[in-house]
Amino acid sequence: MEQLSILILDDEKRLCDELEEFLQRKKFLVHTATRPSAAFLILEQESIDIMVLDIKLPEMSGLEVLKIVKSNYNHIEVIMISGHGDMQSVIEAMRKGATDYFQKPFRLADIEHAIHRTERFVALSRQLQRYDKTISLLTQRLYESTGAPMIGESKAIKEVMMMMEKVAKSEQTSVLVTGESGTGKELVAHGIHLLSNRKTKLFHAVNCSAITDSLFESEFFGHKKGSFTGAMDDRAGWFEIANGGTLFLDEIGDMPVGQQAKLLRALEERMVSRVGTHQKIAFDIRVIAASNQNLEEMAENKAFRGDLYHRLSTFVIDLPPLRQRKEDIPLLINYFLNYFAGRMKIKTPRLSQEAIQKITEYSFPGNIRELRNLLERAVILSEDGMITTRDIPLNNHSSDSAEAIQIKSFNLEESEKFLIKKALDKCKGNKSQAAQLLDISWQALSRKIMKYGIK
C-alpha cells in the first residue's frame, strides 16, 4: 500500500511531538497541529489519509472538527482520542463517521494498532477515488472524441471500466471484447485507446465481416501501383495507417479462416509487405478485436483458428447485456432524451410512469442500441413534452410465449424445434440474431438446425 499520510490534532504539543517521532519511525508521513485552525490549513495544503483527533480542543470541540472534516474531506478516516468520562462523546463521534478510538493514557503501540485497523478503510477509499477518476476521465474523453460517453453506475459496468483502465497501461497487450450486439463493444475499444498513451494516434475500426478475400491483403497490408487491375496508385494498408495507434477488428468471428491465417502471421511478425513488393514494413499497433460470438467454442469446433484466438485473447473484457445492468437504464434514458431533444432543438420530453415501467420491465435483446433507437423515435413522436406508452412500441415476447405454451405435445425435442423455427422466422433466417434471441451460441444453433433438419 502507498505511504499513509497522518494528521495529529491534539492541544498537548509534547504528545504531538512524541507521536510524530514514533510514527515517522514506522514510515508514516506525519503532520501535527495543536489548534483546529492550524489543522484546517494543513488539510487545505496536504493530502491526508488518516486524522488522529482529540475530543477536547481549544477554538472548537473535536466533534465540531469531525463534522467539518467529514463534510469537506469525506475520504479522510478519523480516529478519536478520548479521556476518561468521554464515552458519550466517543459514541457520538462514531455516529458522525469516526472509524476508531482509543483512550488516554495510551501506549504508543495503541495508536499504531488503531492506524493499522483503519488502513483497510483508507485502501477502500483510495480505490473508490480511482474508480471515480477513471469513470470521469473515460466519460469526458469518449464524449469529446465520439460524442457517445460510457454511462453507468452499476457494479458490472464499473468493473468493465476498471479493466479498461488497467489494460490501457499495457500498450502492446491484445484485447478481446465480447458481448451481445448493441452492448457497446466499439465504445469500450475506443475508451481503451483514449486511456492509453496511444490516444494522440489514430484509432482505426475495421468491419471484418465486410472484407472479401480478393481485397483482404490490399486493405490490411496495402499495395503497390500496378500490382493488380485497379491498383492505380500506391496505397498504405490499415496496419500502416494505424501505426502507433490502435486497430479495432470488429466482428472478428466472421472473418474467413483463410484470412485469419494471414492476419495471424502479420500480428506475430509485426511486419507486412504491400501487395506487389517484398519490402517489409514494421508497424507498432495495439490490436483490439470484438465479437458477439463465442470464439473459444468456435476454435474448438474448427470454425475459428485456435492460435489466432489465443493471440487475440490475451486480455478479455466481457460486456454485460443491458438486462443484467438494469440500474443503469434510468441514466441512459436521461442521457438519450437530452441528446435527441438537443439535436432536434426541442425541450427534453418527460416519460410517463407507465412508459417508464414498460421500458424497465423490457429485456432489451438489442441492448443499448435498441434503447437508443427506441428513445430517438419516442422523442420524435412525443406531444406536449410527454412520452407515453404509445410512443414506445416494444417487441412484446408474451405473444410468442403464449404460442409456445399452446404446443400440443410436451415432447422436449418438438418444443425445442418449434422455438428454433420461431426464432429464425423472427430474425428472417439470420442465424446470429436467432442464436442471441435463444441465448445460445451460433455453433450450437447450427448443430440443432442440422439435428432437426430445419430449413
What does the secondary structure layout of this molecule look like, with pairings?
Blueprint: E1 5-9, H1 13-25, E2 29-33, H2 36-45, E3 50-54, H3 62-72, E4 77-82, H4 87-95, E5 100-103, H5 108-146, H6 155-168, E6 175-178, H7 185-195, E7 203-207, H8 213-221, E8 222-223, E9 235-236, H9 238-241, E10 246-250, H10 257-269, E11 271-273, E12 280-282, E13 286-291, H11 295-300, H12 306-312, E14 315-318, H13 329-344, E15 350-351, H14 353-360, H15 367-381, E16 386-387, H16 398-405, H17 412-426, H18 431-438, H19 442-452
Parallel strand pairs: 1-2, 1-3, 3-4, 4-5, 6-13, 6-14, 7-10, 10-13, 15-16
Antiparallel strand pairs: 8-9, 11-12
Helix pairs in contact: 5-6, 5-7, 6-7, 8-10, 13-15, 17-18, 18-19
Features:
455 residues; Rossmann fold; 5-stranded parallel beta sheet
Written overview of the protein:
The chain has 455 residues and is an alpha/beta fold. The chain has four domains: 5-125, Response regulator (Rossmann fold, 3-Layer(aba) Sandwich), CATH 3.40.50.2300; 150-318, Rossmann fold; 322-391, Helicase, Ruva Protein, domain 3 (Orthogonal Bundle), CATH 1.10.8.60; 398-452, Arc Repressor Mutant, subunit A, CATH 1.10.10. Helix content is 50%, strand content 14%. It contains 19 helices and 16 strands. The chain has helices spanning 13-25, 36-45, 62-72, 87-95, 108-146, 155-168, 185-195, 213-221, 238-241, 257-269, 295-300, 306-312, 329-344, 353-360, 367-381, 398-405, 412-426, 431-438, 442-452; strands at 5-9, 29-33, 50-54, 77-82, 100-103, 175-178, 203-207, 222-223, 235-236, 246-250, 271-273, 280-282, 286-291, 315-318, 350-351, 386-387. It has a five-stranded parallel β-sheet with strand order 2-1-3-4-5, sandwiched between helices. Strands 7-10-13-6-14 form a five-stranded parallel β-sheet. It has a two-stranded antiparallel ribbon with strand order 8-9. The relative contact order is 0.07.
